[in-house]
Task: structure prediction
Amino acid sequence: MSDREVCVFDLAEQAFAVDASAVREVVRVDAMKRVPRAHACIRGLFNLRGQIVPAIDLRRRLGLPARTGSQVLIVSELDGELVGFLVDSVRDVVTLAGESLEGVPSTVPEHVRKVVHGALPVEQGWLLCIDLALAAELEDPRRSEGSTDWSFAGDPLVTPLS
Amino acid sequence: VSDDIFHEFAAETREQLEELDRDLIQLEAGQRDAELLDRMFRILHTIKGGAACLGLLQMEAVSHGSESILDQIRERGVAPSPAVLRDLFAAGDVLRQLTALVDRDESDAALDSSELARRLLRHAESESFEQSFAATAPPAALPAADADAGKASEEQSDSRSVRIDVSLVDDLMDQVGELVLARNRLLQWAASSTDAALISQIQGLNHAALQLQGSVTRARMQPASRLWSRLPRLVRDTAAAESKQVELELGGEEVELDRSLLEAIRDPLAHLIRNAISHGIEPTSERLERGKPAVGKLNVSARHHDGRVLIEVRDDGAGIDVRRVIRSAVAAGRIAEDRAQRLSEAEALKLIFLPGLSTADSVTKVSGRGVGMDVVRANVERVGGDIRIDNRPGAGASFTLSIPLTLTIVPTLIVAAAGDKSGNTDKYAIPQTSIQEVLRLEQDVNLFSAASPALRLRGKMLPLVSLNRALGLVDDDAPRAGTVVVLQSGEGRFGLIVDAVHDAEAVVVKPLNSRLRSLKLYAGATILGDGEVALILDAAGVARQAGLSFSEEPEAEPVAAPGPPVERVLLVSDAAGNRVAVGVDHVTRIERFPWEAVERAGGKHVVQYRGSIVPIAILPGDSGPVASQRDGFLAVVCRVHEASLALAVHGVLDVADAPLEGSQQPLRAGFTRTAVVDGKVAEFVALDQLPFWMQKEPS
Result:
């Protein structure tokens, strides 16, 4: 595998990536309907052109501090169902030529490793590649995911390679 | 070859196998007319041909073997032996399993059926033929022309229908739902427009959208015969396992209902049928002893009633032994013995819906394992249905499922729960099927205890649940006065306190994402007319979340020792402070109407209430509603001679039992009698002689 297309997005001042092929669309949401008694990571339901789609709060899922400002949703289709993932902002789809996935740095906490399928080396550091299918698996509805403050070494900001 | 061809082949084959099953049962029953045999042969031949084209070798071999047997029966006119019939039934089952494999894009080689295929061919081989087939009278030969005619008309009807993937119809339904919402928004907008041309265009669109919605809804409908087609086989197998003789009668196959509903009641129906055969219908010897025909009768029928579909499973067996049901319930610790003794027959019958109850003396192969009716009821209620039992001890029992016509578009009541921090309230939809009535809590009529809130509604205790608390939106929320939606869930009746009641709205139900389905609180989600997402509440789920348990309390409290006859009345007061009694049987609701709601029609004052126009009546002696509060007046909504009226009252005092004896003649016109109720005099108003609040001449 030589070229890898990833969609790069921000969460709590850190950059992450998902496989571009897993992203169906990126939408801005203003109205969300909360779902009482649902898993803490499910922020609510939103209306995507008539389809009712649950939104998983990726900050919460990864144990990052909560945020109240506007966010965008990465919509993905998992097992025939649409699922949205709330992120701070989406930067771009970039092609990383000749890069392959490497092991996840050991500084990354265990609960994050579980939903990451590798790290991509970029110019200024690493880019954690999130597996959306794993991130959408919410097992214990009561447990909140991990600590609320972590970041891994280095500045992972990426400059898109064209 | 594209996958579609395989799926299409699987879908067609599945239908043909159902037909084959029905035909096999007729063959087993001794029928061997040319039409039947030709049809069976044709089905097997079609399957064989399709399987050969698609390289499905196992399927080809099994259908070939069966086809050869059919050919022999046709040629020689002999009856198949039980062994041959058994293998033919087995062939049908194996073909079904192979079809399922094909449908899942798996190879049919995964199921080795070569042994069965060989056996089938052996049956058909001429030398073993005479042993395999019990020779009996030759079949009644039918003119071949008849069979051809039947075939021709079948082909004709085939060309008038097309096979569509169900998911396509579901997509259409979704898109129509969207269109309806867009139309709703346009209509709202048009209401404030003065552009006549625009309004007329929007009305045209409105009309088209309504028709489209109707058509697509119809496209999702399927006849009950889809459900019936599997029953002969089920009855045959169950009866055989129980060594009983049962004749199945099917009715109402043309009654149509939504595809998803058909799926939803498939299992409950099968369960009721198995129960009827294994618990209801007696063994042959016992039937003969009781002077009944040896063959038990099982009748399954569908019919329309009141905008719902009724599906009835009726048997002519022994009926339900209510004493035994009570004994089992007591033995299982589900109900206290002394309480059980006081139950009425109808209440005792409902005990069969308690989990873990089995009335079968012995555990048989097909049923009586103690799982059952509770699951049946839960499944039926999940789709907004209910079950009624009609028990005739000694003569049989019937179970009637009452289910809505469609699941996709459901009439609901939209209610509000506590707002979030920014003050926006959340809207929830409650299916009308679970709503009994809506009440406004008036502190002076209702009883609260903080620990287990309940209210006395027409003499019965109604447990109260706060929607906000059930949803975990607030912790401290002691039930306050407000609006109570009275819900009937399978286990019992309860009142749901909501923050507000909005409109009634027919909504398009969308399934919840699988990540949320474990939440039993919700039956689905929907998009309201304003584009907002709303969750649809599941009454039984809300009751469970709130920790209500009805299982030991069959709804109606047994009536206490008979005392003097009483009438239950609602005590209200008029403007002059007189106590006036209104029979509760007539009362639908106590409501506060705002002054703005009062309109005039035909010289009377009227209000709009739940979609109809209701005249305002006043108590004899009053001149109009009392402006007791600035924001409106209090009225008791009553039904008198099938019509509703809103009786304006000054205040609502209590609900009480009024003695029917010892009352006196009325003291004035407009009343029927006077009596002492709860120690004070009350006048009983004549509801059918109430004066209306007439419009005054402008002064």
